[in-house]
Amino acid sequence: MKFARIIFANLLRKKVRLLLTIGSFAVALFLFVFLGVVRDAFNRGADVASADRLIVINRTSIINSIPLSYRDKILRIPGTKAITHNNWFGGTYIEEKNFFVQFVIDPENQRQVFPEFVVPDDQWNAFLKDRVGAVCGAKLADRFHWKIGDRIPIKNNMYDAKNSAWEFNLDGIYHGKQPKDDETQFWFQWDYLEERVSQGFKGQVGWYVLRVDNPDDAPRIAKAIDAEFANSPYETKTEAESAFAAGFVKQFGNIQTLILSIGSVVFFTLLLVTGNTMAISVRERTSELAVFKAIGYSDLTILFFVLAEALTIALIGGAVGMLLAASAIPGLAIALSGLLPSIVLAPSMLLFGLAAAILTGILSGIVPGLTAMRLRVVNALRRV
Amino acid sequence: MVKVDGNGGQSSLIQARDLDKTYRRGGEDIDVLQGLNLDVEAGEFVAFMGPSGSGKSTLLNLLGGLDVPTRGRITVAGDEITHMSGGRLTEWRARHVGFIFQMYNLIPVLTAFQNVELPLLLTKLSKAERRAHVETALGVVGLSDRMHHFPRQLSGGQEQRVTIARAFVSDPTFLLCDEPTGDLDRKSADDVMAIIEELVSKYHKTVLMVTHDPLVAARANSILHLEKGVLVEGRHSPQETAAGGVA
């Protein structure tokens, strides 16, 4: 491109200003990608939700339990393929800051309902035979450097008034089939919970997860389940897994709006900063632009010069920002692994960031570019 | 032959007829040019003189297609430029006009070579062809050894020589010089004028020049004066003007 030298020469005429503008872009893109990744992590539950899975919880609240006896009744509803149940355990591993999700699972049906979590058969069989066995996700095992055979003590004050440690043998480590699958959970057997809890907790599960034969039937089945238990002491609320996950996220507040608001403010500020820089840059070389026009450069070529400069700044700054984000996100994933599972930088987020950088670059260059384009040579040369 | 009476023949390279230019300033109309006529044949070297504000630069801007007259028409090499659109006028300038400004107006972030190459970037010439043209042009102005210097590394005279190289590198139909020596010492001014004279005598370029300096004007073939918005021929020959005659 024969004009590249002109564009780069103009860009490099004020190196400090160029670096500061690129820096602004880099910081904004870093923040943009970072916030986007956090937002994705919050929405991950809904993203990974399977269309053929339904969640049945106590109508009052998810913290209220429902009887185990419902399992067979739910299974009898036509269209139901498989069912499993979970309890929230809420224990602490050594100290509070080591938070991670612990689910009490029904080993018999877990793998049928959650086929995306893959455990090697030998490890799974060892887990089934071990009453105090446990299986955890690969990321969780990495976090605490656990390996098969380790003994893991978890204190619990929800089911155990003495807050004593529950000792588990790590029999297996699961991996998600896709990078976005949550690999930070810790599972142990429902029978072990049932054995240790007081009478009031016995025979109770936290929620059911079921798979249906045909996702199109899910609304009918959900309605049938809730109708089955209507007017009972434990009325149910059945919804699609994605709706359940979305509802769960809402408990944290409107994360989506918060992140969008911060992102919008960041980009609007960036637009003003870059637009102002480009406007100053164009104003400083009014007479040079007039010379270009005098010797035959068209208005569109002049507009192209200014837009190309703005776009180059945007692309370099954007790339730096996204590289910074890409290198910082693994650290964020470790820091928030208990709170937000599956913090990953998806390629789509990088593309979105790139598109945002390009758009901001063009928008910031368009007004100064049009000003340069409309410049009257005679006036700009300050000669009459 | 230069004529200002409007009776030039069809052979004129540049023909201006009944040119008016009026500016509106502070609610008041200022008539700068009033019914101006001009005929310049190819290969002429014409100097325009006149007091400040007489409209010399305005005339140059009109002839160079940088501005449009309020009334009248300008024809250059058979093309009437007065009714061209802005885009067509820009293309026309690229092909037909070379500009030499008083303040050089080089692009400070480009080297002498890159500055001279600017008009050629608008052509279909290959990189090698562009290089050959630029090297030739810089050779003509005696700056072959300064082609990779930036304007800040050149003297005023050298900068103006780069401007001259940029003006003729694309072989335009004519050159417009607006006070080309106005910012130079006498020695540098002489060097610059020698180059412009060479462009006329050796390369048969047509040059129209605005100047306040009688010694510079004297180097032209013809001297025209702008008085009350019209051109009049000099009452003194260039030699007399150079000798100190009142222009």
**Number of separate strands of chain A:** 12
Query: What is the level 1 CATH name of chain B?
Result: Alpha Beta
Task: State the fourth-level CATH superfamily of chain B.
Answer: P-loop containing nucleotide triphosphate hydrolases
Question: What fraction strand of chain B?
Answer: 25-35%
Radius of gyration of chain A: 29 Å
User: How would a crystallographer describe the biggest sheet of chain A?
Assistant: 10 strands, mixed
| Global Rg of chain B | 18 Å
Number of domains of chain A: 2
Which bin fits the share of residues in helices of chain A?
A: 40-55%
Structural class by sheet pairing and helices of chain A: alpha+beta
Oligomeric state of the chains? Answer: heterodimer
Biggest sheet, spatial arrangement of strands of chain B: 6-7-8-3-9-10
CATH architecture of chain B: 3-Layer(aba) Sandwich
Order of helix and strand elements from N to C terminus of chain B: EEEHEEHEHHHEHEHEEH
- How many runs of DSSP E, i.e. beta strands of chain B? 10
Could you please say which CATH topology of chain B applies here?
Rossmann fold
Order of secondary-structure elements of chain A: HHEEHEEHEHEHEEEHEEHEHHHHHH
Strand content of chain A: 15-25%
> What is the structural class of chain B?
alpha/beta
List the helices and strands and how they pair.
The complex is a heterodimer of chains A (384) and B (247).
Chain A: H1 4-11, H2 15-48, E1 53-58, E2 66-67, H3 70-75, E3 80-88, E4 102-105, H4 107-113, E5 117-118, H5 121-129, E6 133-137, H6 138-144, E7 151-155, E8 165-176, E9 186-189, H7 190-196, E10 204-205, E11 207-212, H8 218-228, E12 236-240, H9 241-250, H10 255-284, H11 286-294, H12 299-335, H13 347-373, H14 377-380
Parallel strand pairs in A: 4-9, 6-8
Antiparallel strand pairs in A: 1-11, 1-12, 2-10, 3-4, 3-11, 5-8, 6-9, 7-8
Helix pairs in contact in A: 1-12, 2-9, 2-10, 2-12, 2-13, 10-13, 12-13
Chain B: E1 14-25, E2 28-40, E3 45-49, H1 56-63, E4 71-76, E5 79-80, H2 86-96, E6 97-100, H3 112-117, H4 127-140, H5 156-168, E7 174-178, H6 186-201, E8 206-210, H7 214-217, E9 222-227, E10 230-233, H8 238-242
Parallel strand pairs in B: 3-8, 3-9, 6-7, 7-8
Antiparallel strand pairs in B: 1-2, 1-4, 4-5, 9-10
